[in-house]
Amino acid sequence: MAAGTRGRAVMQLAGDVMHNFFTGYCQEAMPTSAEREAIRQKNQLDVIQLILEHVVGPGDFFSSDERAEFAAEAYAAWGACEGCLAAKRKGITPGVPFAQYNHDEIDHVYVADGPFRDIAHAIVNHQQMLDKPFFDSVLQRIEEYRTKNKAAGDEYGPDEYNAMAIELATVAALCSGVRAFFGASGLPCPELPEKPRVCQPAHFKSVFNYASGPLNTNMAIAWGPFLYASQLREDVATRPDFDKTTWMFATADDSAPTSKASASPLTCMDFLRFANVMYFPVEDATRFFKVPGEDRHLTRGQLEIAAAVYTRTKSCGY
């Protein structure tokens, strides 16, 4: 089903591009209706509220206290940390690895005392610097933290540390995405919700708690790990807070940008929810690609240009 929907969307997109190329046709902008815009804004705000509740709650491998601390740092740092802004103006000291520079030389303005607070700043404010050595440094930091704070029964391996790194990156991405939405819309940005009064543990202890096999890596595409859609265990896919159809579509192909968050599936689902209301629901892709559109301001050509530019400038190897 997911592959069929994806195929129809790709064929329609390719057909439109070819038609426009040979005919010179340019779709005129069509304003959306005030009613439709109000509905869409409500949908966006409802999902944002849910996401903010989730980033301060228990995650795949991090407890509610750990995630709330990290989310608070990422949420506050986006576009606002004077240290990050000064570092961008000054430039990085030549020969110094970015992970070291970010940790030791940037005078970050912190709001929490979490063990990964500098990493939160790096992800939300220095995405263009996130390379494989930086990712490897995150893995090392996580392993050191888990070893130092090891609880009875905790036995983590490379896959678990990789999934934890992806979880942190996705939480930071969600925080920056929400901040960017309110910055662009002009709507008042809400505060993060309060974390649970009693710390809630992570949902998983092992990748095999949610996957039928180990994580995968395709170095020809990216150096971060991912989970194939079919690897997800059925007891996770049928959770009431999990949308299996959306998951199958977004993770069916390891070249899909959304697959890069799949190593931490519950956090990935929030990422997919955000994408659904900000762009279009994956199960509704073929309707969304209809020309002319009835519920958007941008023309198809403008949408394709925006998507291409965003993908090129915001992509990273995670």
Characterization of this structure:
Mean pLDDT is 84; it is low at 310-318. The chain is an all-alpha fold and 318 residues long. It has a domain at 33-205 and 280-314. It has helices at 2-23, 34-55, 64-77, 82-90, 98-104, 117-125, 132-148, 158-185, 234-237, 244-251, 265-278, 285-288, 300-314. The chain is 54% helix and 0% strand.
Kindly provide the radius of gyration, computed on alpha-carbon positions and rounded to a whole number of angstroms: 20 Å
Spans of at least 5 consecutive residues whose pLDDT stays below 50 are 310-318
Compute the number of helices: 13
What's the helix-strand series?
HHHHHHHHHHHHH
Distance between the termini: 27 Å
Structural class, judged by helices and strands? mainly alpha
The rough form would be described as globular
> Main beta sheet, described?
none
| Strand portion | under 5%
Quickly describe the structure:
With 318 residues, the protein is mainly alpha-helical. The protein contains 13 helices and no strands.
Identify the notable features of this structure and list them briefly:
single chain; 318 residues; mainly alpha
Topology:
Elements (H helix, E strand, L loop, with lengths): L1 H22 L10 H22 L8 H14 L4 H9 L7 H7 L12 H9 L6 H17 L9 H28 L48 H4 L6 H8 L13 H14 L6 H4 L11 H15 L4
